[in-house]
Design brief:
Blueprint: H1 3-17, E1 28-29, E2 38-40, H2 43-50, H3 54-65, E3 71-75, E4 79-83, H4 86-94, E5 108-112, H5 127-142, E6 146-150, H6 158-170, H7 192-208, H8 210-224, H9 229-252, H10 263-266, H11 270-277, E7 281-284, E8 287-290, E9 304-307, H12 315-329, E10 334-340, H13 344-357, E11 365-371, E12 374-375, H14 392-404, H15 413-433, E13 441-442, H16 445-448, H17 456-470, H18 486-496, H19 498-508, H20 512-531, H21 540-563
Parallel strand pairs: 5-6, 5-10, 10-11, 12-13
Antiparallel strand pairs: 1-2, 2-4, 3-4, 7-8, 8-9
Helix pairs in contact: 2-3, 4-18, 6-7, 6-8, 7-8, 11-12, 12-13, 14-15, 17-20, 17-21, 18-20, 18-21, 19-20, 20-21
């Protein structure tokens, strides 16, 4: 249990033993550093409840707990300010990282993120789902949960019809287009580059020709309904081909998935889902829909469409099929959807439909974790020069060019390239995780690749400094023996805040608390580093304290960067 949680429990016990009923205690950072490190503000609430003077209650509490702290004082109407004993701050800083985590009962959690469209290149719009989802997954693992990450590919849709129609146009003699072929289908001779060329050509042709568009619709519907084995075989091969390049981009972002499944996998479960939903479905304009409106809704929630008027499935059907599959195979406690917040209404419909129909029991939590959009420095969506949607690889390359300029000139060759690649990803990921999840933000490659301010390179440069310093000392167990100055105290107090930061990030699935904290920790470290001659300190106890403090900060920074899925560099 963390220092903060232990302290909250200690104070709560003292308050209850004084005869006051209080359910919990929350330590907050003290707003005035000269008064203390932390503060509790519940005395005023107790005074109102018991018709007492708040300072009298605060005084009784102060007297009950003062021996457990270096200093306790009262300010204003009853704010209790607390300063930890030096040994408590020291022990907290040098303990195992797990001491900063207030564990709860472990859960099985599925995180649904990624959402790439098969047979298409990943674009900028896919990035936030990957970055936020990966960090949430890693944070849940940090808290001791059994977590499954699912990429949930968009592998059913018009792109299937587009690509197959284009291949049919270009190579009509292939066996997939021969209705009399009854052998085993061969391996299709296509590459990801072929698919990348074919899709836009097919899209333009379909827009210009209604006949071509109708062919695309027909092929798509046949795949969706599973009626055409030739097209299904061909499309699955195309999905596998495109998945290779998609995986490469996800790998660049340090994103990994336990399940590489998509909407096609859900089709196997649609019959079972329809049977469960049957009592709740009714016809509307030829389609089958389900009411999900609640009596206390202040706005209209439209019915959830389950089967289209042409008998085909729709996103909702396949998401319900995916939920059914997950419940049958994994029986999770929670399913988290990391998706663009503009899809909030749709997921509200799906989630409600799952509970109303009994597809999911009330004990299983389905939660939509929406996120805002990333825009260019002008506040407008990222576009290519010709106005198209920017591919994610192109954005990464743009940042690479900018960050490569900042690397020391003596670093060259393959080493320079690898460092620049890692820094480019760190720049992108840190800036993407810095704002609150639901917030839209503007990305400026120059600003966010800076070595100063709240940027990925600034954080990594702090780590480079720490590793360089530690490489010059003996590899032994160093102890923090004393607190010789305010710089050391500031770092120790900042370390004490870590448990609250992690718990808040976990409770709210808000990674920005971690990115903010990491910046503040490195900032406190840099002040300590610049003001103290660590390796040349003459007092051995102080020198050992300095080195031990550097090791503690580095171990925390290293762990938090791993949660953010940001790789370190050795030099820059």
């Amino acid at each position: 249990m963390s220092l903060i949680k232990n302290t909250e429990n200690l104070i709560l016990k003292a308050v209850n033993e004084l005869g006051y009923e209080l359910d919990n205690v929350t330590l907050e950072k003290c707003t005035m550093k000269n008064l203390g490190q932390y503060q509790v503000n519940f005395a005023m609430g107790l005074a109102k409840k018991y018709s007492k003077n708040p300072r009298d209650i605060a005084t009784k509490i102060m007297n009950a707990i003062k021996n457990d702290f270096k200093d306790v004082n009262i300010a204003g109407p009853g704010f209790i300010n607390l300063t930890f004993k030096d040994e408590d701050l020291i022990n907290n800083a040098v303990g195992d990282f797990s001491n900063h985590i207030d564990y709860e009962k472990p859960k099985k959690i599925i995180v649904d993120y990624g959402g790439a469209n098969a047979a298409k290149a990943l674009h900028v719009g896919h990035m936030r789902a990957a970055n936020i989802g990966e960090a949430i997954k890693r944070l849940c693992v940090l808290f001791g949960n059994d977590v499954i990450g699912d990429v949930h590919l968009g592998d059913i849709g018009r792109q299937a019809g587009m690509l197959i129609s284009q291949l049919k146009l270009e190579q009509p003699d292939l066996p997939w287009f021969d209705p009399n072929f009854d052998g085993e289908y061969p391996k299709v001779n296509l590459t990801a580059a072929d698919l990348g060329r074919m899709y836009p050509e097919a899209s333009i042709a379909a827009k210009e020709s209604e006949e071509r568009m109708e062919e695309v619709r027909q092929i798509t519907a046949e795949i969706d309904k599973g009626k055409n084995k030739a097209y299904l075989n061909l499309w699955k091969q195309m999905v596998n081909i495109s998945s290779v390049s998609i995986k490469e981009v996800y790998k660049k972002l340090n994103c990994t998935f336990d399940l590489w499944e998509g909407e096609m996998d859900a089709l196997n479960y649609v019959p079972q889902v329809l049977e469960i939903l049957k009592p709740y479905l009714y016809e509307s304009n030829g389609a089958l829909v389900m009411d999900v409106q609640k009596d206390d809704d202040k706005t209209e929630i439209p019915p959830l469409m389950v089967i289209k008027s042409d008998g085909a499935t729709i996103y909702g059907t396949r998401d319900l099929g995916t939920i059914y599959s997950r419940m049958e195979r994994f029986n999770p406690d929670e399913i988290l959807y990391v998706v663009d917040q503009r899809q909030g209404m749709y997921f509200e419909q799906v989630i409600r439909g799952s509970y109303i129909s009994g597809l999911v029991p009330p004990t299983t939590k389905l939660e939509f974790l929406g996120f805002g959009t990333m825009n260019g420095s002008d506040g407008k969506p990222f576009k290519t020069r010709d106005g198209g949607v920017m591919q994610l690889n192109d954005l990464i390359n743009m940042i690479y060019v900018e960050i490569e300029k900042k690397i020391k000139p003596e670093i060259n060759g393959e080493e320079r390239k690898q460092i620049a690649e890692k820094l480019a990803i760190a720049t992108l990921k840190y800036s993407d995780l810095l704002p609150y999840r639901r917030t839209d933000y503007n990305f400026d490659p120059v600003k966010f690749s800076s070595l100063e301010g709240k940027t990925g390179p600034y954080i990594l440069y702090g780590n480079v400094r720490m590793k360089s310093l530690l490489s010059k000392v003996e590899n032994k167990d160093y102890k923090i023996k004393l607190i010789p100055n305010e710089d050391v105290m500031d770092v120790l107090v900042k370390i004490s805040e870590l448990s609250k930061v992690l718990k808040r990030a976990y409770d709210e699935f808000a990674i920005n608390y971690i990115t903010d904290y990491l910046y503040e920790l490195i900032q406190a470290f840099n002040k300590f580093y610049n003001n103290n001659n660590i390796l040349n300190e003459q007092d051995e106890d102080i020198k050992e304290t300095y080195i031990a403090l550097v090791k503690s900060v580095y171990s925390i920074s290293e762990k938090l960067l791993d949660v953010l899925a940001i790789e370190e560099v050795e030099k820059m």
